[in-house]
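If you are new to this repository, start here. Below is one unmodified record pulled from the training split, so you can see the exact layout before writing a loader.
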Amino acid sequence: MDLNNIDLKAMMTSLMQNAQKMQENMRDKIVTGCAGGDLVVVDVNLKMQVTRLALAPALFAEKPEVISELVMGAVNQALQNAEQMLKKEIGGNFGL
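And here is the target side for that same chain:
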């Protein structure tokens, strides 16, 4: 590999542009987590921000402890899904 023929500045510029584009798209990509047979549905973007929390009316017939566990389960599932998608995005954008 001849380092004299490689335009490092152009490579760095391209890499930075790809990283910036990926960062901008992270808030637009949404994944979902569910619990209790869809009693709780949580959407999370790739910035790990909850963008939607949907609670089915039937959920409120449950004990507070059950509601809490279902909400935590749905949030954790959504965050795991976001993390997996983020790894795929990073790998795809940077050839990993």
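Two things worth knowing about this chain: The first strand starts at residue 30 and ends at 35. The chain has a mean pLDDT of 88.
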